[in-house]
Amino acid sequence: MKSILKSVCRYWVDEAEAGQAMIMFAVMSSALFMTLGLAVEGGNLLSQYRQLQSNADMAAIVGAQKLPCSTSACITTAQQTACTNVTTNDPSLTCTPGSRTAPSAANVPPVSCSPYDFIDYGNGSGDATYGDSSCKAGTSPSQYTYIEVQLRKSLGTIPIFNVPVTVGAHAVARTGARGAGDYAILLLDPSKTGALTINGSNNVSVVGSVAIDSTASWSMIFNGPNSVLTCDGGWYNASGQAASSPVLTSLKTNTGGTPGYAGPACTGGAADNPASYSPSLPTVQDPYANSTIPTGNMANCQACNQNGFAYCRSSSNNCFFWKWQQASASPLVINGDGVFELFPGIYPGGIIINGSNLKIYFNPGVYTLGADLTNNGSGNQLCIYGAPACDNKVGSGAGNSNANCSNVSFNSGDTTYVSSAQWYYYCSPWGIYDKYLSRTGAPSGGPSTTVPTFSDGTTPLNGVTFYMETGNLTMNGGISAVLAAPNACPGTGSPGTGSIPWPAGAATGSYTYPSGSLPNTGGVNTSPISPTSPLYGSDDLTVAGECKNGLTTWTGEFGSGTQGQHVQFAVFARNTSTQVTLNGQNNQNWWGDIYNPGVSGTGGTVVLNGSNGSTGPPLVSGQVIGDSATINGGNNVDVYYRPCIGSAPCGSAPGTSLIE
Up-side HSE of residue 236: CA atoms within 13 Å toward CB? Predict the structure, then answer.
């Protein structure tokens, strides 16, 4: 009986405890499920925010790569690029370029004020267009370098709380600092003493920055120049060589002045004291290391794929009994005092120019040299067929009777004064291809009559590139030369009365070839040739320039995935022995990059020997890139690259980064 009673009592006690548990579970379950739901919804909310923030970060970086900007069109492009990136990554969003009130937008300059005291976004009270009195004060910048992306996204109603939830993200990015493609002079030898050596008694002017990779204790040696100046740039050195080193006493910079064209020089602002000099920096990589060299199979230049041709336009005596001659394994030798046309192509034995007072016209295209390209004569004139500068140089062009393209002054009152706009009108160095010259009597049928083009297959090449497969390029003998690399950008300016705006050039302006000019006497273009031969006056070499059409002379010229710039290769060499020497006792002007890096510090020397007075155009308008460089002579030597306005940034995207 006792055992039965115990069993019954235990049953009732267990049932009672179970009931209490059920009651407790019923009470706690709602809170438990609410907590679980909150964790799930919270995780989703965090995931959505992270995706939105990543979207904003990427859009800001992509937009910043279109900066710096100074025009409304450029600003719109940067904003639109950022917004396109936003909607591509999340089609549910609507991003409004340039809106300062829309939920999701991209703005240049940023709408928000900078949280950092040392950063000025350019949207302070000094900006007449985008000014905000609460932001960091400052004058209106000449170029905007920051972009802001703000995003807001509705996630709908969260069931637990039954309230609508919207998440937001915000990012500010700036364009990159100067990259390898931004230096006027870049020397890549990692250990050479005197990687940059400057001798002589006159001035060296560089518009842009100079970078030296050599870690030698004396990577720079200056012997006797009056002044070594960089304008709108500085000196960057991998060596720890101190600025107080005796060999650097001539080092000067002017980072506050506006680069002037004539000289080149800085206008406004005094030389920095001390000079802008940065030693012990990381080495700079070759910006064009991935560029593809011509292979002899250039689809857009039939003439470039066969051995080149030369044609003499003078009498048989001056031509030494030939009119047409084709390049071969032996050097193509040009003698006498005649007028010669050269066509692009392969020159296995090289080109030797002798004689005096020769006029050498190069037709646009790529010249592949299997041996030396040398000028030994004196008084010879080298230029590009159909270029206004060419006509001016040989005496058939328009302009001031006391001035020519190589000696003009931009200082009013000077007897050789020519306005910068007018100078571009008759001194554009880019020309046309002579497809009209008769090929009668030419071996192998002569050069192709098909005009070489850029990579789009339709835009004609208008300059020359000398590809030194082997051999040296040497210009001796007091030559007078204006040689320009192909330029894909005719500019966007509108021609005024008798002039072309500087430095924009004109997309529709044209040049009337005067009587006596070679194209005119050849029966070509006896009237203006618009729009097929506009004046390519643009000297805006920045990636943020107005052209940006991406045309290149040959595939991969600027590396995979990079944007082609206006200036291209005037001289291209990549071997262990080539030396490029420009000896300009007379006026010698090169428009394009002089690129001769050698291989890992084993060669690639560039020598520039005195040229140009202080009032003429520069010796080199483009980059000088080599393993080392020597600059000699008792006259001015000028390198002109990065013609930015004032101290505006010239970054070309490497180093583009988020600020917040």
Answer: 21
- CA dist., res. 525 & res. 298, Å (int): 28
Buried b (16+ CB within 10 A) or exposed e, 19-50: eeeeeeeeeeeeeeeeeeeeeebeeeeeeeee
Q: Residue written as tokens 């005195």?
A: 610
What are the angstrom distances between the C-alpha of 64 and each of 67, 91, 101, 146? Answer: 5, 21, 21, 7
Residue 528 has pLDDT above 60, yes or no: no
Q: In this structure, how many other beta carbons lie within 10 angstroms of the beta carbon of residue 162?
A: 7
Q: What is the pLDDT of residue 473?
A: 95
Can you give the pTM of this predicted structure?
Answer: 0.73
Distances (CA, A) of 314 to 347, 358, 653: 22, 10, 51
Q: What are the distances in angstroms from CA 436 to CA 28, 430, 439, 624?
A: 96, 18, 9, 35
Q: Are 431 and 535 in contact (CB under 8 A)?
A: no
pLDDT in tens, 68-108: 676 676 788 889 989 999 998 899 999 999 888 899 999 99
How many CB atoms are closer than 10 A to CB 90? 17
Tell me which DSSP letter residue 408 carries: -
d(CA 424, CA 315): 34
- Is the Cα dihedral 10, 16, 18, 24 positive or negative? negative
| Element at 359 (helix H, strand E) | strand 359-362
pLDDT of residue 546: 45
Q: How far is CA 31 from the centre of its chain?
A: 64
Ranges of beta strands (E only) in 268-326 are: 277-278, 309-312, 324-326
- Pairing status of strand 235-237 against strand 209-212: parallel
Return phi, psi of residue 461, to 5°.
-65, 150
Do the beta carbons of residue 150 and residue 170 sit within 8 Å? Answer: yes
How far apart (Å, rounded) are the C-alpha atoms in residues 465 and 168? Answer: 52
Q: How many CB atoms lie within 10 A of CB 395?
A: 12
Which residue type occupies 222? F
Distance CA 658, CA 660 (A): 6
> Nearest to residue 262, comparing CAs of 417, 112, 121, 111?
417
Q: Which phi and psi angles does 80 have, rounded to 5°?
A: -65, -40
Look up residue 146 and give its amino acid. Answer: Y
Measured at the CA of 646, the angle between CA 641 and CA 647, to 5 degrees, comes to: 85
Mean pLDDT of the chain: 77
- DSSP per-residue string spanning 628-639: EEEEE-SS-EEE
- 8 A C-beta contact, residue 594 and residue 186: no
Q: How far apart are CA 579 and CA 88, in angstroms?
A: 49
Are residues 226 and 659 in contact, defined by beta-carbon separation less than 8 angstroms? no
Q: Whose CA is closest to 78, among 153, 170, 173?
A: 173
Q: Which amino acid type is present at position 464? A: V
Dist CA 296 CA 347 (whole Å): 11
Closest CA to 465 of 557, 354, 582: 557
Question: Rounded to whole angstroms, how far apart are CA atoms 543 and 12?
Answer: 88
CB 303 within 8 A of CB 450: yes
Q: Mutual orientation of helices 2-64 and 72-89 as an angle, nearest 10°?
A: 150
Give yes or no for a cis peptide into 531 (omega within 30° of 0).
yes
Task: Give me 87's structure tokens.
Answer: 């909607």
> Omega into 264 within 30° of 0, i.e. cis?
yes
Grade residue 222 by pLDDT with cuts at 50, 70 and 90: confident
